[in-house]
Amino acid sequence: MSHIKNAIIASINREIGTLNIRALRLFVYVMEEGTLARAAERMNLSQSAASRQLSLLEEQFDVALFGRDQKRLIATQQAEAFYPEALSLLAQIDDLPAVFEQMKQKVRSPLRIVSQTRIANGLVLPAIAEFANQYPDQPVKLEIMLRRDLGRRIMHQRFDVCVSALPFPVEKLTPHPLGATTLRIALAHDHPLASRASLGPKDLCDVPYVALDDSTVLRRLIDQQVTGLPIPTYEVSVCNAAYRLVRQGLGFTFADTVSMDPELANGIVLIPWEQQLTIEFGYVVAQQTATDRYAHAFGEILKQQFMEKL
Q1: Burial profile 240-255: b = 16 or more Cβ within 10 angstroms, e = fewer
Q2: What tens digit of pLDDT does each residue of 216-257 get?
Q3: What are 137-190's pLDDT values in tens digits?
Q4: CA distance 38 to 17
Q5: What phi, psi does 252 have (nearest 5°)?
Q6: What are the E-state strand segments in the chain?
Q7: pTM above the 0.85 mark?
Q8: Main-chain dihedrals φ then ψ at residue 146, nearest 5 degrees
Q9: 3-state percent breakdown (helix, strand, coil) of the chain, nearest 5
C-alpha cells in the first residue's frame, strides 16, 4: 500500500500546477458520500458532469480511482491511499483565505486544540487555563467531539493538538503518551455504598447502572472485561451526562480521576473497583504548523495536569 501511496504523491507533486481542484473535491465527496449522485449534488453538478470530472482526474494522474459495478462506484486501493492526501491538500487550500486575512491583519494564528469529550472538562480545560497564564497573548480555539468523530478531523489536518484516549483512531499517528488511569465506581456522596473500601458486581446488582452507550471505547472495554453487571438503566453518549445523573442519586457509573469534571467532584465519590481496569490517554501534535512552539508547550502542560489529576 505504501508504494502505491508514494507513487500517487509523486505524481501529484509533478502535476500540482495543473491540478483540477474541483475534481479533487468531487473525489473526496464521493469517498465520503459513497455515491456519485450525492457527491454531485453537494457540488451542484449533474451526474454526467461529475463523472467526466472524475475521469479527467484519473487520466491526469494515470490511476484508476474507482471500479464501476453497474451504477455503483467502488473505491480502488489507489483511491483509499489517495484519500488522506486529498483531504490534506484541500485542507491547505481551504485555509488559504484565513491565512492571508491573518497576514493582512497581523493576527496570531490560534492554537487549535481538539479534545475527546471524555477529558475536555477534567483535563483539557484546566490545561488551557494554565496555558493562558503562561502565554496570555496566544489565542486558543478548542473543539470538543466524540472520539469516533476525531478521525476525520485528524485526516483533514484541522488541528494543532489533539487529545484523546488511546489508541488514536488514525493509525499513522505516533502519540505522546500521558499515562493511564484506573477506572473506579462513581456514586453520589450520600449513597449507602459510598463508604465502602471497594466494590464489585455483587455489590451493585440492585443499583441502577448509568452506562455510556455501546459505541464508546470505555463501554466496549467494560463489556469485554466485566461480567455480572446489571443491564443499564440509563445510557448516555458522554461521560459528563453520566456523572450528573450519578450525582442526582440515580445510580452508579464507571469513572476516573482525570475525566471527572471538577465542578461535579464534590457531590461524587470514586470507589476502587475490585478488578483492575485502565484506560490510556495521549496527545498528538500536527507537523509544521504556525503554532508549533505553542503546541509543544501545551503538550507539556497537559502532562503536568495529568500527573496532578492522578
Answers
A1: bbbbbbbbeebbbbbb
A2: 888 989 999 999 999 999 999 889 999 999 999 999 999 999
A3: 999 999 998 887 777 777 777 789 999 998 887 777 789 999 999 999 999 999
A4: 28
A5: -125, 160
A6: 66-69, 72-75, 111-116, 140-145, 161-165, 176-182, 184-188, 210-212, 234-236, 253-255, 268-272, 278-285
A7: no
A8: -65, 150
A9: 50, 20, 30
Q: 51-96, pLDDT tens digit by residue?
A: 888 888 888 878 888 887 766 778 888 888 888 778 877 777 777 6
Q: Which residue has the cell 493562558?
A: 132
Q: What is the mean pLDDT of the chain?
A: 85
Alpha-carbon gap, residue 284 to 299, rounded angstroms: 8
Burial class (CB in 10 A: 0-12, 13-18, 19+), 295: buried
Residue 221: partners with Cβ closer than 8 Å, 6 or more residues away: 277, 279
- Radius of gyration over every alpha carbon of the chain, rounded to an integer in angstroms: 24
pLDDT band at 290 (very low <50, low <70, confident <90, very high): low
Cβ-count burial of 87 within 10 angstroms (0-12 exposed, 13-18 middle, 19+ buried)? buried
Length of the chain counted residue by residue = 310
User: Which of 63, 70, 72, 56 shows the shortest CA–CA distance to 24?
Assistant: 56
